[in-house]
Amino acid sequence: MHQSPTYEVLTRKVSLIKLNGNGKDKGENVIGCEYSPPLKGKPYSIYTGNGKVFKTSSLIDIRRTYTALLLRTKNSIYQIKYL
Questions:
Q1: Residue range 34-45, pLDDT digits in tens
Q2: What is the pLDDT of residue 75?
Q3: Mean pLDDT, all residues of the chain
Q4: Is 77 inside a domain boundary?
Q5: Which of 3, 19, 55, 83 has the highest Cβ tally under 10 A?
Q6: 2 in a domain, yes or no?
Q7: In a domain, 5, yes or no
Q8: Strand order in 25-34's β-sheet?
């Protein structure tokens, strides 16, 4: 019996909150599992269930705070909290 190697898929459950320009919560909150960690120059995607995916535009900047990550796109700022 030939067995192929197994791979560990590292997905994490996240809460993605859209912030307004002054860094305060706008109330838009998406909860799901990230496809991959955020990468500068790439869109950030979250699987939200029932075949639906939330996707940002390409990330311009990623900053780490004490409790979360801040993602900046051309028009929006998002905060990621890992659940």
A1: 988 999 999 999
A2: 86
A3: 85
A4: yes
A5: 19
A6: no
A7: no
A8: 52-55, 45-49, 25-34, 13-19, 77-82, 69-72, 61-64
Residue 61 lies in a domain: yes
**Phi–psi pair at 78, nearest 5 degrees:** -125, 150
Please provide the distance, in angstroms rounded to a whole number, between the alpha carbons at the two ends of the chain: 40
- Kindly write down the DSSP assignment for every residue of 55-73, as one continuous string: E----SEEEE-SS-EEEE-
- Cβ atoms of 73 and 56 within 8 Å: the answer is yes
State the residue range of the domain holding 23.
13-82
For the segment 55-75, what is each residue's pLDDT rounded down to a tens digit?
A: 999 999 999 988 889 999 988
Place of tokens 């311009």: 60
Query: Mean pLDDT across the stretch 10-28?
Result: 76
What 3-state DSSP class applies to 39? coil
| Residues 12, 33 contacting (CB under 8 angstroms) | yes
Structure tokens at 47: 């699987």
